[in-house]
Amino acid sequence: MEKYNLIEYFLSHGYREATSEPSARSPVLPNGRLDESGVPLHFHRQEFSNELRSMTQLENIRNFAIIAHIDHGKSTLADRLIQTTGGLTDREMKEQVLDSMELERERGITIKANSVRLNYQANDGQDYVLNLIDTPGHVDFAYEVSRSLSACEGSLLLVDASQGVEAQTLANVYLALENDHEIIPVLNKVDLPAAEPQRIQQQIEDVIGLDASEAIEVSGKTGAGVPEVLEAVVSKIPAPSGDGTGSLKALLVDSWYDVYLGVIILVRVVDGHIKKGMKIRMMGSGGSYEVDRVGVFTPHRTEVAQLHAGELGFITAGMKTVGDSSVGDTITDDRRPANEPLPGFKPSVPVVFCGLYPSESADFDNLRESLAKLALNDASFQFETESSAALGFGFRCGFLGLLHLEIVQERLSREFDLDLVTTAPSVVYRLHLTDGTIMDMHNPVDMPDVQRIEYIEEPWIKATILVPDEHLGPVLKLCEERRGVQLDMTYMNNRAVVVYKLPLAEVVFDFYDRLKSISRGYASFDYQVDGYEEGNLVKVSILINGEPVDALAIMVHKDKSESRGRDLCIRLKELIPRQLFKIAVQAAIGGKVIARETISAMRKDVTAKCYGGDATRKRKLLEKQKAGKKRMRNIGNVDIPQSAFLAALKMSDD
Fold it and tell me: 108 and 213, same structural domain?
């Protein structure tokens, strides 16, 4: 860095000048320049050396992520990297140390990407700062992966040495390449008896096209090969680029709500630096705040003096409301702002929508606050207010898949102690009306009169399925049943790579579960939205006791409407408890009933007290009971349990 630029940097950052002669405490900078009156500029020696040391540190920083398919060992390898570099002592170590959420530990999956800063002394004797991000593997959390990769310069591509390349492996590699990452292939679980490192190396080269001749063989369980991984990170992943003397420009990678600290923001500093007491501005929202805390995760939350260009860490700035921070926004210095913001992220597009309603109407405000806090922590989750005749006021929520929906519902229940009613999920349909307008329909209840609709379009996806040969037949049959169109099929060794075009509505519910079931868990699946196509779709309404229940309305293909309606009526008959009167469960398209089931009434034995005597006594009691049941049927309410609202998801194809 040029001396002139250093002087400009210190002057612009408010370091004090001295017009007296140089002293031991305040020396002139080497080759320093004079001001207009010919007086040298001086700076405090300690401040100068600290700043100079932090600027030269850029070459010794490495930012990288671990990417892989589900269950290929990302979190376990992250544990070994933390342990090897001394981030935690053996006493502090535990399995999946970066999976801080209780739900992640229970399910054994990573839901949120987590970062950690590690100090490592390489074989060349230099000290390096390694910023590691552990990412999720499931397709429903792909947006979490893409945001994490934008904060890094390289990736460790983790492949199970026994399972090989899977669908999500490919998807994550493409995300890494889009971010211009240096990719290091790593073969995990080489200690397993079924491991075939040489075959998997060849598979990586054939399927992905990466040179895997120098792929590192590791065991996340035993720690074998971990030192080689650390050396590869230092030698192969490039150092971050950035201007340490420029205006602050930092990317808001993630944010979450803390009860004590308010909004905590994960940032990647691109240019300049950020320190406590500094006034920052959000370039997107325009809000200005004073920084309260600056820190890094080691993985403990550790405060530091400042974060410099190329570094990853967190800040708090007294943000009270969740709307103050938006993922992808650019943070800059309020006094010396950057000229233009960073590119940020593409907004996530929800593919599944469902209604969330509080079981008690008094909890509505609590639910709204809870959803806002959760949306701050999960940028791919979206919600807006809606109302239902059956359920009252609630929210229409958008998710990236059914697992995402399940996780959000579970987190609301655990973290915010909410009791919720969930409606049947649906996708976004595009309605072309006779007056030429186009309407996006998130909820089947919002469907206008069929006379006003010219045609309906539904979203389709391009799905990539990797499956062993012996399970190929049932997988192809499943795709055909779901109205799939085969685009491509190739082979690699004893596995088939099948590419299908499928309607999203047929996939988001139980397709993944069925796929895993018929392939005994060996098939892997990844998809991307591929536009809209016209479909012969109808709305199936469910009537309970003659009253339509809007929360149970579903959109289906006309050819499957009768079977779906019948299945749903049968399932509801099992789930709705019997009342003191008969309950008719009907499925209807418009005014035409296509299926019906009757829940028989509970019957009290009113003639039990009649011992002998005239038969008319018994008949009178039975007639009185019959009249009472008829009256009750007209005014009685039917309580539908929560499980009934989710019954639409679990319909069997058998």
Answer: yes
183 with 200, same domain? yes
DSSP symbol at 362: G
Cα R_g (the chain), whole angstroms? 31
Give the CATH number, domain containing residue 469: 3.30.70.240
Give pTM, 2 decimals: 0.70
pLDDT for the residue 234: 92
Q: Are residues 578 and 629 in the same domain?
A: yes
Instruction: Give CA 193 to chain center in angstroms.
Output: 34
pLDDT at 342: 81
Cα distance between residue 440 and residue 446, in whole Å: 10
Q: How many folded domains does the chain comprise?
A: 6
Q: Which two tokens stand for residue 199?
A: 């075959």
Give the chain's residues under pLDDT 50: 1-5, 13-56, 632-636, 648-649, 652-654
What is the spatial distance between Cα 333 and Cα 289, in angstroms, rounded to a whole number?
10
Residues contacting residue 574 through CB under 8 Å, at least 6 positions apart: none
pLDDT for the residue numbered 380: 79
What residues form DSSP beta bridges with 398?
A: 353, 382
What type of residue sits at position 429?
A: Y
Write down the pLDDT at residue 64.
92
Q: Which DSSP state fits 426?
A: B
Reading the block at residue 266, the tokens are: 């994960």
Answer whether residue 55 is part of any domain. no
Instruction: Indicate which CATH number applies to the domain containing 546.
Output: 3.30.70.2570
305 and 224, same structural domain?
no
CA angle (241 as vertex; 245, 272 as ends), nearest 5: 25
Tell me, yes or no, whether 163 lies in a domain. yes
| Digit-coded pLDDT (tens) for 513-545 | 788 788 877 787 877 888 888 888 888 888 887
Residue 137 and residue 178 share a domain? yes
Q: Where are the alpha helices (H) located in 417-534, listed in sequence order?
A: 472-481, 504-507, 511-518
Contact 163/124 with Cβ under 8 angstroms? no
The vertex-69 CA angle with 66 and 75, nearest 5°, equals 45
**Residues facing 431 on adjacent strands:** 439, 456
**Residues in Cβ contact with 81 at an 8 Å cutoff, skipping those fewer than 6 apart:** 87, 118, 130, 132, 226, 229, 230
Range of the domain at 410: 352-425
Task: Determine the pLDDT at residue 159.
Answer: 92
- Of the three residues 380, 399, 425, the one that is the final residue of a domain is 425
Q: Are 281 and 307 in contact (CB under 8 A)?
A: no
- The Cα–Cα gap between 188 and 199 comes to 13
Q: How many residues does the chain have?
A: 654
